[in-house]
Amino acid sequence: MRTSPNLLDSKIPEGPLESKWTNYRSTVPLVNPANKRNLEIIIVGSGLAGASAASSLAELGYKVKVFCFQDSPRRAHSIAAQGGINAAKNYQNDGDSTYRLFYDTIKGGDYRAREGNVYRLAEVSANIIDQCVALGVPFAREYGGLLSNRSFGGTQVQRTFYAAGQTGQQLLLGAYSGLQRQVGLGTVKMYSRHEMLDVVVIDGKARGIIARNLVTGEIERHAGHAVLLCTGGYGNVFFLSTNAMGSNVTAAWKAHKKGALFGNPCFTQIHPTCIPVSGDHQSKLTLMSESLRNDGRIWVPKKAGDTRKPNEIPEEERDYYLERRYPAFGNLVPRDVASRAAKERCDAGFGVGASKMAVYLDYAAAIERYGKIQANKLNETNASKDRIIALGKDVVKEKYGNLFEMYEKITGENPYEVPMRIYPAVHYTMGGLWVDYELQTTVPGLYALGEANFSDHGANRLGASALMQGLADGYFVIPYTIGSYLNTQIREKLVSTDHAAFEEAEKSVKDTINNLINNKGSKTVDHFHKRLGKIMWDKCGMARNEQGLKEAIQEIRQLREEFWKEVRVPGSANEMNPELEKAGRVADFLELGELMCIDALNRNESCGGHFREEFQTEEGEALRDDAKYSYVAAWEYKGNGNYDLHKEDLKYERIKVSARSYK
Amino acid sequence: MNLTLKIWRQKNSKEAGNFHTYQVPDISPDMSFLEMFDVLNERLIEKGEEPIAFDHDCREGICGMCSMYINGQPHGPWKGTTTCQLHMRAFKDGDTITVEPWRAKAFPVIKDLVVDRSAFDKIQAAGGFISVNTGNAQDANNIPVPKDDADKAFAAAACIGCGACVAACKNSSAMLYVSAKVSQFALLPQGRVERTERVLNMVREMDVQGFGNCTNTGSCEAECPKEISLENIATMNREYLMANLKK
Ligand SMILES: Cc1cc2nc3c(=O)[nH]c(=O)nc-3n(C[C@H](O)[C@H](O)[C@H](O)COP(=O)(O)OP(=O)(O)OC[C@H]3O[C@@H](n4cnc5c(N)ncnc54)[C@H](O)[C@@H]3O)c2cc1C
Ligand code: FES
To answer: Taking CA atoms, what residue in B is nearest to A188?
Structure first.
């Protein structure tokens, strides 16, 4: 590893924080409508970021092509988001404001995000809700017909908008409907069941992509004036995560290898409330939305190794450890804090369930509380205990019904009767392609939006902020910022796909595919993926230390070598071949995993989701080192296992940086 | 558990397919149905055979990608449950399970259990939207919506677009899918502006894509993993009638 002189220009506009974005918008060069018609934009990904960008750019008059690997753009993993989306609307009159959302996000990110970006995010958040409602997104409402809100972790206001436990679904279907409208108008051409396998860079600028048609196996070339990667997060490097089976890093990683720097790769979010692993057969982990922490109470028995059933453990023998340790925020501390606290209890022998790697999330108190309120509403002043419980269950069902059902299907236990068992799981990646204020990577013409970029969440993302960021990037940021590049491209004709750079990129993609197919080794792709996942979880997961990271780097290198010798990919390249798709993705994870460990090893501090055991307070809280590490680590690919570090210093002009406390 | 699986294998859309029988021993009742398929596929690959292609992604019952026709039912025996959320607890040791792809003219088989559902996207592109461009919206709370309407719109919008309704229907009708979108928008003030055009365009496209007519058998509702209500079809019929009167 070498440290390079700083090549990074974040392009944060001058001027006071509150007027940066307004000023930027009024001065950014525009592209006139006639020129827009001649400019083509390639968008990879159709999640919240990709779909919102695609419809907005097509509405402006650009020609757009959209790619996704699923059979329909509506299936991007944004669909699975449960709990909600934040916006500084202050509809609850509880003191919310743009500034407060900005402040909560910077603090939640443990002071490792850019002020300028985050302020803009908070500023446009209100417009997102307006836009979604206009598109017909059926958010939850109160009896008066106005929008309802709830709380998420790391905040003390109610600013989260939601649609039962299916907020991501409703937002994505809204964005998808806008996208399909443009498809119908012929301004967007949709390529479903296509996987992008490389970026084509000519004279330092992104000029197109190579994609594989997943039905026929054909390798295709697509040229564009700009390429937007909206390809989601890379949590699946851990094998088990709450991501979809197909979620991957391939697009971002190929871009990285073509010159785009990768920002803070080790910043991973481990979500505190997921259904625990039940056996080796497990293919993915299921999230139980953070919104459940609004009403559920988390506890373990006070006695280590207690084998009694949860309902047999009396109140005074339960340890509500979050309420005990963090009285100000209680069960609503940020995710990194809640996850580590669960791990701490389980490691100390207080875990529950067969594996002892779980804690309880208990709804009994909430059911009773809601039941009483409901009985009062119905004027049933003498309601029996059973009646109250029954009423309370109905209220909880309306709020969280689909989550409770999902829990029961997976575990076979009824969470209305017994507390849920939960444990932290990999959920989100704050790291991603480094982008400037305009969402442009270090390769001109190549942009990254949504979870694929590193931008707004620092070292820890607050709940309900990823949906907000994806839609902010797509609806309200990129339509302006892309003009600043495209106005310089109006004289450029679309590059011919016969250009040598396309030729070369296609050849390298085909070579990789042929290597995989012809290898005919003895082990399946999943075999390697599971082993990689275990290394990552054990050594670069919720807690990391120098020795473990050094070991992990060696182990991953060996595993990568073994992969290329021993992997077996059945079938051929010229047909639908899901094993081949997986193999390509795992090959990229095997490289990314190493970089994550290198990054974690470099950062000799604990911050947000990055917890280095050597750096903690006496009470076990993360100990930052602002003097040395108040920077974004942006890594440049230098060929096989070599990376140069570029540092973007973080300057805080508005916020006073302090120790993060939720006590 | 030890199981016998009879699975539809088809190399591609051009070649004919047929059933293959597989013995699948050592399955845990805690596995999901797709995890059982993962195990079977790992074993096939290790034996040098071709694994079975099937669609799936989120494995949380929300993306709508998984689509297996299990023992004569789309998504198998559990009510209101997608294939990916179906768990092996639903079966007994020694069972024989038959697995096929969705069968409908509008959903041609691509490979094994994978079908082409792009017809659904085309129907959506024909009218399943509200025509507002980004940046034009008024404050969200300027449009109050009665809670009851909002809840009903949400219930309709919960459709995951998996196509089980089409697979369940003897006529391969897409009425439940289309009507869910039509009623979601019909229930909301924002959606009413374009209601006439919307229903006419979506119904026209549904016919163009080769879906059959609805004869009210109700099997779509019975098999829908999200329990989308038949009431939506009644709403759509009303919308369609009104639209035709206006035209
Ligand atoms: C279970 C779960 C619950 C969540 N709940 C919440 C919540 O309540 N609130 C919140 O704010 N956030 C939540 N999040 C986080 C949030 O959902 C995601 O961060 C966000 O939706 C990501 O959106 P995206 O558009 O960036 O990517 P995605 O929606 O993941 O879309 C990625 C797109 O890229 C495409 N793609 C990827 N690679 C390629 C390739 N190589 N070639 C072609 N196409 C490709 C895919 O097909 C897909 O269309 C949750 C996440 C999970 C996993
Ligand atoms: S895999 Fe997403 S619904 Fe089944």
So the answer is: B125
Low-confidence ranges of chain A (pLDDT < 50): none
Decide if A413 touches B, using CB distance below 8 A: no
Q: Please say which residue of B111, B144, B175 terminates a domain.
A: B111
Nearest ligand (C-alpha, residue B164): 2
Which residues of chain B are within 8 Å of residue A127 when distances are taken between CB atoms?
135, 137
Are residues A524 and B147, on separate chains, in Cβ contact within 8 Å? no
Which of ligand 2's atoms lies nearest the C-alpha of B83?
4
Q: What lines the ligand 1 site, CB under 6 Å?
A: A 44-50, 67-70, 76-78, 80-85, 167-168, 195-196, 230-233, 242-243, 247-248, 250-251, 287, 427-428, 450-452, 464-467, 470
Residues A454, A459, A463, A469: what is their CA dihedral angle, to the nearest 10 degrees? -20
> Within this chain, do residues B44 and B139 fall inside the same structural domain, yes or no?
no
Confirm if B56 and B66 have CB atoms less than 8 A apart: yes
Start-to-end CA span in chain B (Å): 60
Please report which ligand is nearest the Cα atom of A243.
1
Fold topology of A271-426: Flavocytochrome C3; Chain A, domain 1 (3.90.700)
- Interface contact flag, A578 B51, Cβ < 8 Å: yes
| Nearest chain B Cα distance for residue A195, angstroms | 14
Q: For A498-630, give the CATH class.
A: mainly alpha
pLDDT digits (tens, 9 = 90+) for A475-491: 999 999 999 999 999 99
Q: Does pTM surpass 0.90?
A: yes
Helix axes A115-134, A20-27, angle to 10 degrees: 70
Q: How far apart are CA A555 and CA A574, in angstroms?
A: 33
CATH number at residue B56: 3.10.20.30
Catalytic residues of A: 335
User: Of A95, A101, A195, which Cα lies nearest the Cα of A465?
Assistant: A101
**Boundaries of domain holding B216:** 117-246
Specify the pLDDT at position A5: 53
The number of C-alpha atoms within 13 Å of A196 and in the hemisphere containing its C-beta is 31
Q: Which of B61, B89, B132 sits opposite A134 (nearest CB)?
A: B132
What pLDDT is recorded for position A151? 87
Nearest CA in chain A to B126: A184
CA distance A291 to A293: 5
* Rounded Cα–Cα distance for residues A283 and A245 (Å): 8
- Do residues A523 and A532 lie in contact, with contact meaning Cβ atoms separated by under 8 Å? no
Q: Residue A6's pLDDT is what?
A: 60
Domain boundary among B111, B135, B152: B111
The span from the CA of B239 to the CA of B140, in Å, is: 26
Atom of ligand 1 nearest to the CA of A466: 11
Q: What is the 3-state secondary structure (H, E, C) of chain B?
A: CCEEEEEEECCCCCCCCEEEEEEECCCCCCCEHHHHHHHHHHHHHHCCCCCCCCCCCCCCCCCCCCCCEECCEECCCCCCCCHHHCEHHHCCCCCEEEEECCCCCCCCEEECCEECCHHHHHHHHHHCCCCCCCCCCCCHHHCCCCHHHHHHHHHHHCCCCCCHHHHHCCCCECHHHHHHHHHHHHHCHHHHCCHHHHHHHHHHHHHHCCCECCCCCCHHHHHCCCCCCCHHHHHHHHHHHHHHHHC
Ligand 1 centre to CA of A161 (Å) is: 18
Question: Please, which residues 168-197 of chain A have a Cβ atom closer than 8 Å to chain B?
Answer: 169-170, 173, 176-178, 180-181, 183-184, 190, 192
Task: Residue A73: list chain B partners with CB under 8 A.
Answer: 121
Mean pLDDT of B28-48: 96
pLDDT of residue A186: 98
What whole-number percentage of chain B has pLDDT above 90? Answer: 99
Residue in B62, B75, B190, B200 to test binding to A, most A beta-carbons within 10 Å: B62
